Amino acid sequence: MYTYKPKKFYLAVFAATWAFWGFAIIFNEGISNFLGLFLGLISPSVLAIIFVLSSKSNALKKDFKRKIFNFWKLKPGYILGGYLIIAAVIGCSILISLLFGESIEQFSFTKDFSFSGPGIFSAFLTILLASVLEEVGWRGYGEDSIAQYHSWFKESIIFGFVWALWHLPLFWIPGTYHFEIREINVIYMMNFFLSVVPMGFITTWVYVKNGRSMLASILFHLFVNFFQEKVALTQNTKCIETFVLAVAAAIIVLTNKDMFFEKRHVGNILGE
Known about the structure:
Layout: H1 6-26, H2 30-53, H3 58-69, H4 76-98, H5 123-147, H6 152-166, H7 177-184, H8 186-209, H9 214-230, H10 235-255, H11 257-261
Helix pairs in contact: 1-2, 2-5, 4-8, 4-9, 4-10, 5-6, 5-9, 6-8, 7-8, 8-9, 8-10
């Protein structure tokens, strides 16, 4: 049976990603910025593939292939459920924000994205690539490497904090969404970190309910990123949204206790 190596994987991911993003921070113009940003973004997926292919485990390689190609085994109801949860969270957040003087015009789509894609990369294509590349890394190896040793509840907490911290250098790379919100107010930067943790629970729910499918996670991640960008939420409303996300995550955990707290998969995630 293959032994997952979460510490080794995440140390390698952070070292590679932060090194490339550090390059983008230092050389923050033109192609240098884009190259560093892109190389940092693909680091989790590249390292996940390296860990899988170098594992000498046929079970791990077969599982990786299944998670990305067996689309006919997806459970659309859970993917749609994830979409509806995010839509409801956004809608409730806007309604609550109206009580604090925010505009009802938030119930509309923005004309532009909050960032511009470099060169031929449109903002939408950048979001698409980010969704695919992140999920291949996180769901291809990263999340399972933690779940091999913990319940999905504990895994979601650990991964949520790790995932949030991974984004840190982006707040100093010009042209990114993260840079823009840090420039506005550091409170919005902190809110981003807080929001990632409850989002991790919802993403885990979609992932596990679809038989640990990377494709399901990619579709969900793309939906979240697109609507977070295109719905005209103010940053104040996004702070409210973090609270509503936490409530939604709590409801999902309480209504899926067996999934989040069972330990049948611990030590044998490839043999489920």
